Amino acid sequence: MGKERKCCVPGCNSNYNNTDNYVSSFTFPKDATRKNQWVKSINRADFIPSLTAVVCIKHFSSQFIIKEDRVVRDDGSELVVPRKIWKLTNDGYQSIFPNQPFYLSHDPSTSRKSPSERKTALNLRDEQKFAEWCTNDTVNSFEIFQETYAKKLGDGWLNIRTDNFILCYWIDINQCPSILVSMKIYKDLTVEIWHDSVLLKTKSYHFILGEQ
């Protein structure tokens, strides 16, 4: 069967009778657009591929070859299973033609990363964003907090600022104006939150400032 899957690229003798080793090959895509891309790439005049026409693996960049399957287990670990039969990615196409004019060969314009590489890149991006967030939101003193807190409040919040605390509050103006919720931040970063005149649980964040 391997001898019958002869590569249709001009100048390539993969899987012909005079070759000893079988070379993996791939049939043309069923999608018309990708099929036309393949036909155009191999530079064969007036070529109309049959249903059994194939292009061997020698003409595809390694980034388009899937040699293993990856599955993420429930515990988050990754199971890697080598494939007995390699296959192409959905966007794979020929770009290597050693027996053709040099200008027909080229490096694919985009590099496809493996699932593990994409996962690593995403984790690195998340770590960078977290580090940036920590840097931008660091509170080193109550004075710095006084200077920056207004930028962190949403629209509609009002505030009163003193040397010992900052009072932020939201007024309900739908009927009789009244303070709906308020938040009082003291110099030691003890926080009092009031809702409808009820004091909610008090929480201290003085540890953010370090040892005083």
Characterise this structure.
- One of its GO terms (cellular component) is nucleoplasm.
- This is THAP-type domain-containing protein.
- The termini are far apart.
- Strand 3 and strand 4 form a beta hairpin.
- The strands form 3 sheets. Strands 5, 6, 7, 8, 9 and 10 form a 6-stranded antiparallel β-sheet that branches. Strands 1-2 form a two-stranded antiparallel ribbon.
- The mean pLDDT is 81.
- 21% of the residues lie in helices and 27% in strands.
- The protein has 2 domains: 87 residues, no CATH class; 67 residues, no CATH class.
- With 212 residues, the chain is α+β, with helices and mostly antiparallel strands.
Task: Please bin the fraction of helical residues.
Answer: 10-25%
Order of helices and strands: EHEEEHHEEEEEE
> Describe the biggest sheet?
6 strands, antiparallel
The N- and C-terminal alpha carbons lie at a distance of 80 Å
Tally of DSSP β-strands: 10
Class by helix and strand content? alpha+beta
Shape: rod-shaped
Keywords: Cell cycle, Coiled coil, DNA-binding, Metal-binding, Nucleus, Transcription, Transcription regulation, Zinc, Zinc-finger
Main location: nucleus
GO molecular function: sequence-specific DNA binding; zinc ion binding
Subcellular location: Nucleus, Nucleoplasm
Which characteristics define this entry?
2 domains; alpha+beta; 212 residues; six-stranded antiparallel β-sheet; two-stranded antiparallel sheet
Helices and strands in order:
Elements: E1 25-27, H1 32-42, E2 54-56, E3 65-72, E4 78-88, H2 115-136, H3 142-152, E5 157-161, E6 165-172, E7 178-186, E8 190-195, E9 198-199, E10 203-204
Antiparallel strand pairs: 1-2, 3-4, 5-6, 6-7, 7-8, 8-9, 8-10
